[in-house]
Design brief:
This protein is an alpha+beta fold and 1108 residues long. It is 37% helix and 16% strand.
Length: 1108
């Protein structure tokens, strides 16, 4: 406002004759605005009445000559000026008051007051200001006002008839005492009555008549201004918004889009660079390991300390026996320091990286494989290759779904693709690096079983089991799971476990009856029950559960014939101690949830959950890293760790809230009881004893001895007679309902299927929290039985039943004294047989059920025949059936392997392998270094593969018929994939899957176990080398012990399903068996213990080293 007045003064001063009228009109409007604004807002905010505003207002009015111009407009403006001056006079600021008073005094001295109403208005306003100054005793203000009052009274004395109404009024004409006289007079009744009766009413009337119309017009003016302002504001905002949109479209969005693209490109480049650097580092490390290993050129250098982790390889009893080298080993010193509150001297590691480290430890890196330059394909395989390419072109995508691959350590996001021939999974996780991930591809023909699974109590997962014991746990969106499952069943023509509930699946499998009849072991039965009930190694929240079976962990010797050493299997572990039963029952009966959400329960924890699994397996990776991640980046305190088997049992007996059952590893895996990785697990608070290996019961001399006796106890007569009672609790009719309440076997409601509907939770954070709660509490297995489980037959009852059933098979080892030999003439006259095989996977049509199996025989002259063979049957008078192949008797129909064998090659059984269905014969030893495939049905060669650089000396195949391994004089071994068509082998892939190096002499014996991911080869110089099958990595070199200085050669190798390795050696023609007892674990790869030795037909088991 000050600036507006200042500008108006300047405009009027500098205006020309042409512009002066416009500036004058603007000035008049401005004065009206100032008057209206100050009269409205100034009453609320006195600070608006500034000296600057007064000065500029007076200057502007003087420049317009308002006080002395004629005309209605100027008269009204003079009235506005008087009102403004009176308003400034009323302010508490003395300078403003003095300045306004002086100006008004000067105006009154030169201006006539012609109107009686105007005189009343001026006198009333000045008197109000004067009286306030007297009341407030502000002498300075009073002194300013007295001259003005003297001038005003002299001007209006006659006009207002003061001589008549105010006879006592002090004289205003030069009286020196007027200053004091009027101070006294203004409080007199005469003065007060005059003002109240004559002056004040006219003053108010004048104010209304004079200024009310101006107020109304100014109100309309302000309204118009406001409306114009708002229109202008909206227009400006609209234009600004439109401009902003145009700016965003033309500049911001292209820039942002380009910026995002550049950021993505830059981040992708960084990720690619990091991935490439990591891949190069891994390749260098792999190359270094190859150079400094036992068979490398720098083998004399100091070897790195070996560390181990659990492999995912399983044998056919679903035992994860194998330990493999952990090349990404972390000693977790930071976790130990954080537990002990010692701080960390090194840079702190983000706790989230601990899980990432555990993931890396189980990821597969294809870049660690050697890049092999194989010879060009031979002409004989060209046709096969063309057929394969034609078949691959026919492969079509059936469906794809986003899913999650659930592993022990992580949940990997990705995409599953199902084609007419294969099943693919593509890892799309952000942590995936080049060459490292969970991608997989498998032929549909290798799928053995597909089970519907739960994940976080949701029926949304599938678990796929392959022929080689590999398995994958995939979680889908709930509606997508069944679609993928049905399509997989349609594409997989072989018999699969179709859409059956776990209860129906168990019933259809016949496992229960087999167990009752003692056809399978207790361990195998429990493992199969776990599998059917949805328990899996891939999800820690649904890990397989096994029972505590012993109650004696303090005796010096374990007497399995004494029932008192066993746990009562009819009760939950928490109430095996009778003292705990009463407290558990009272807790259940007294529990009430006010909300009605939580049902009554006996136990707030569960017998199987992720924390419990990590508790037991803390000494082996990746469970060590998972435990640390669960404990927020540190080890748990030593007293809460699993450090003593007797101590753990005693805790269970004393604490009814601790209900942990066992895991399968307690019955086959001694390595989890040893701290071979040297982790710092802390010290016990009371004894200050350092926690290292698990303290064993007194009756166990070593971890191997504990596993041996513990497994023996599991298979004992007492456990066999009572195991069904524990099955009723975990998998059977006592799992839920009134029977569970009576058995004190009810757990927290969140552990049961159907207790929580995760799909109904829309909030992502809340759903994640509930999933975490389910994972922490554990999950109850699917209920498999709703009636009591049958009792297992005793050994005597089984023997009695066998004698009653004439057609039941006889165990040869139980009837050794009754063995008889039978002679069959004319199989191959005067030519010895070198290979006789009864293939194990022989198919019979429904019509030919009970017909003889095929027995393949190969003679030393390379003649082969397929004979009929029917095992022992009491219904046959000759006790067995042998049907001779008619082609071997007639020289015209005899069938021989094509092509001569190489000179000097001894035709032996090791040169031949028969496919599992008895339709193909694989042979080596040929003069052209080939591996040949002969059809036993057609009697001719159907495949010839030349990849070795010298004679093929030995062959071997795995148990599942997926891979074939060949050894050669060129010191290499090759792993071949057996091609399948409709589930039946039809030949070999033209190129080997792996080429295995390491020998320096002729390879004379080979064996392969795909399920344990190991290929074993022995050479003439007595060296045994172990490689992996899937990646072809060199793992270990073994030399059987030899007390003689004479050269030793390997004759045969064998690997059992449980990972036991048998080596048959020869020293100067004397055969010796070297047997390695113990699983394919750290002991096989890195142990310095000697192999046991069996020689001269004597069986000498060195049980001091290993007892399994």
């Amino acid at each position: 406002m000050e600036r507006m007045l200042e500008w108006a003064v300047a405009d009027n001063r500098e205006a020309s004759a042409a512009t002066l009228p416009q500036h004058t009109e603007n000035a008049v409007r401005l004065l009206h605005m100032v008057q209206d604004f100050l009269q409205a807002e100034g009453l609320i905010n006195p600070a608006l009445w500034t000296e600057k505003v007064l000065e500029e207002t007076v200057t502007l009015m003087d420049s317009l000559m308002v006080w002395y111009s004629a005309g209605t407009q100027w008269f009204q403006l003079s009235q506005v000026g008087l009102r403004l001056l009176l308003g400034f006079m009323a302010q508490e600021d003395t300078d403003v008051c003095a300045m306004a008073t002086a100006k008004l005094n000067g105006i009154l001295q030169t201006k006539e007051v012609s109107s009686q109403d105007e005189a009343c208005y001026l006198l009333g306003k000045v008197e109000v200001i004067l009286r306030r100054a007297i009341q407030d005793q502000t002498e300075e203000t009073y002194s300013f006002l007295v001259p003005l009052l003297r001038t005003l009274l002299s001007k209006v004395h006659r006009l207002l008839y003061m001589e008549l109404h105010l006879p006592q009024l002090p004289d205003t004409n030069g009286s020196p005492s007027f200053f004091e006289d009027f101070r006294l007079y203004c409080n007199s009744p005469e003065w007060r009555v005059y003002l109240d009766k004559y002056i004040i009413p006219y003053m108010k009337q004048y104010e209304i008549e004079t200024f009310s119309q101006g107020h109304e017009s100014m109100a309309l003016y302000w309204k118009e201004c406001y409306e114009t302002f708002m229109v202008s504001l909206h227009k400006r905002e609209r234009e600004r918004g439109e401009s902003k949109i145009r700016f965003q479209e033309q500049f911001v969005e292209p820039f942002s889009r380009r910026s995002r693209q550049e950021n993505l490109r830059y981040n992708s480049m960084l990720k690619l660079q990091h991935s490439q650097n990591s891949a190069i580092v891994r390749q260098w490390k792999a190359a270094r390991r190859g150079l400094v290993c036992e068979r490398g050129p720098w083998a004399d250098r100091q070897q790195d300390e070996m560390h181990w982790r659990v492999s995912s390889a399983e044998n056919y009893s679903r035992m994860r026996l194998k330990l493999v080298r952990n090349y990404n080993f972390d000693p977790h010193k930071e976790a130990s320091a954080l537990r002990d509150n010692l701080g960390v001297h090194q840079q702190r590691v983000n706790p989230e990286s601990i899980l990432l480290e555990a993931v890396k430890q189980v990821k597969v890196s294809d870049l660690e494989d050697d890049i092999l330059e194989l010879p060009e394909e031979d002409p004989t395989t060209a046709n096969n290759q063309a057929e394969l390419e034609e078949a691959s072109q026919k492969e079509k995508l059936v469906l794809w779904e986003d899913c999650e691959l659930v592993t022990i350590v992580d949940v990997v996001t990705g995409r599953l693709e199902l084609t007419t021939q294969h099943i693919y999974f593509y890892d799309s996780s952000q942590e995936k690096e080049e060459g490292v991930g969970h991608d997989f591809k498998w032929p549909l023909t290798q799928i053995r079983e597909v089970h519907l699974r739960r994940y976080n109590l949701r029926r949304s997962a599938l678990e796929i089991f392959l022929i080689d014991q590999t398995n994958y746990f995939l979680n889908f969106k709930k509606e997508a799971r069944n679609k993928v499952y049905s399509r997989m069943l349609l594409l997989r023509s072989l018999s699969l476990n179709v859409t059956r509930s776990p209860q129906e699946l168990l019933k259809a499998s016949g496992l229960t009856q087999k167990w009752v009849n003692r056809e399978i072991s207790n361990f195998d039965y429990l493992m199969q029950l776990n599998t059917i009930a949805g328990r899996t190694y891939n999800d820690l929240a649904q890990y397989p559960v096994f029972p505590w079976i012993l109650a004696d962990y303090t005796s010096e010797e374990l007497d399995l014939s004494d029932p008192r050493v066993f746990r009562d299997l009819s009760k939950p572990i928490a109430v095996v101690n009778e003292r705990n039963a009463k407290a558990v029952r009272e807790k259940y009966e007294s529990f009430e949830d006010p909300t009605g959400t939580i049902d009554r329960f006996h136990y707030g924890t569960h017998y199987s959950n992720a924390a419990g699994v990590m508790h037991y397996l803390i000494r082996v990776e990746p469970f060590t890293s998972l435990h640390i991640q669960l404990q927020s980046g540190r080890f748990d305190c030593a007293d809460r760790q699993f450090h003593s088997i007797p101590g753990t049992w005693q805790t269970l007996m004393d604490n009814p809230n601790d209900v942990k059952e066992l895991i399968p590893e307690f019955f086959y895996f001694p390595e989890f009881l040893e701290n071979k990785n040297g982790f710092d697990l802390g010290r016990l608070q009371m004894s200050k004893e350092r926690v290292n290996d698990v303290v064993l019961p007194k009756w166990a001399k070593s971890p191997e001895d504990f596993i041996y006796k513990h497994r023996k106890a599991l298979e004992s007569e007492f456990v066999s007679a009572h195991l069904h009672e524990w099955i009723d609790l975990i998998f059977g009719y006592k799992q839920r309902g009134p029977a569970a309440v009576e058995a004190l076997n009810v757990f927290y409601y969140c552990t049961y299927e159907g207790a929580v509907d995760l799909d109904a939770i829309t909030d992502e954070k809340e759903r994640k929290a509930v999933e975490g709660m389910i994972s922490n509490f554990g999950q109850t297995p699917c209920q498999l039985l709703k009636e009591p489980h049958p009792v297992r037959l005793s050994q005597e009852e089984v023997e009695k039943r066998k004698t009653q059933l004439d057609s039941s098979p006889v165990n040869m080892f139980e009837q050794i004294s009754d063995l008889k030999s039978f002679f069959v003439e004319g199989i191959s006259d005067s030519v010895p047989l070198i290979k006789v095989v009864v293939p194990k996977n022989q198919s019979h049509s429904f019509i030919t059920q009970g017909s003889p199996d095929t027995m393949v025989a190969v003679s030393q002259n390379c003649m082969f025949g397929t004979h009929g063979w029917l095992p022992y049957n009491k219904n046959i008078s000759n006790y067995f059936t042998f049907i001779k192949d008619p082609t071997v008797s007639n020289p015209k129909t005899q069938r021989f392997l094509c092509g001569p064998f190489a000179p000097g090659v001894e035709v032996s059984a090791g040169l031949f392998v028969v496919s599992h269905d008895g339709k193909l014969l694989f042979s080596g030893g040929h003069w052209d270094n080939s591996l040949r495939v002969t059809s036993l049905v057609k009697g001719k060669t159907v495949g010839q593969h030349i990849r070795h650089m010298d004679i093929v000396t030995c062959l071997g195949t795995d148990h599942c018929g997926i891979h074939l391994i060949s050894g050669s004089r060129d010191t290499t071994c090759m792993v071949w994939q057996v091609l399948q068509q409709g589930g039946a082998p039809v030949g070999l892939h033209p190129k080997p899957v792996q080429v295995l190096y390491g020998h320096t002499d002729e390879v004379v014996s080979v064996n392969i176990s795909t399920e344990l991911d190991m290929a074993v080869s022995g050479s003439r110089d007595g060296t045994v080398i172990i490689h992996t099958v899937r990646r072809g990595q060199y793992m270990r070199c073994l030399r059987p012990p030899c007390d003689s200085s004479l050269p030793m050669s390997i004759l045969h190798l064998a690997v059992s399903w449980d990972g036991h390795l048998l080596v048959h050696t020869c020293i100067e023609g004397k055969a010796t068996l070297k047997m390695r007892f113990g699983q394919i674990t750290r002991k096989l790869w890195g142990s310095s213990k000697k192999m046991s030795q069996i020689s001269s037909g004597e069986t000498l088991y060195n049980t001091q080293n290993d007892q399994t």
